[in-house]
Amino acid sequence: MVTRLLIPAFALSLSACAPEPETVFLRPDIPPELLEPEPISDREARTVRELAILATEHLTSAQNANAKIEAIARAVQGPGA
């Protein structure tokens, strides 16, 4: 009869001794070049040709910025996400 009372008490005392799990937050490894702003051309377009070049430069800057955002998202989400 006494052992029936001691077994649950013993189990409870052992479970109370377990250390609390420690939460560790890891910073994702993001290369510094991904955090640099993408340059945008400030040239003035005087002809249609120069306007086309300027539009191409702006498109390239936007595409590079989007690629950086996607790379950062992959780094933050981690593998398997």
Textual characterization of the structure:
This protein is an all-alpha fold and about 80 residues long. It has a domain at about 45-80. Helices cover about 55% and strands about 0% of the residues. The chain contains two helices and no strands. The chain has helices spanning about 1-15, 50-75. The protein is rod-shaped and about 100 Å long.
Which features does this protein show?
mainly alpha, 56% helix, 2 helices
Q: What ranges have pLDDT less than 50 throughout 5 or more consecutive residues? A: none
- Strand proportion, as a percent range, falls in under 5%
Radius of gyration: 30 Å
In DSSP terms, counting alpha (H) and pi (I) runs of 4 or more, how many helices?
2
Helix fraction by DSSP (H/I, runs of at least 4) = 55-70%
Structural class: mainly alpha
Largest sheet: none
First-last Cα distance:
54 Å
Shape category: rod-shaped
Order of helices and strands: HH
Mean pLDDT: 85
Task: Explain briefly what this protein structure is.
It is built from two helices and no strands.
Write the layout of secondary structure elements.
Layout: H1 2-16, H2 48-77
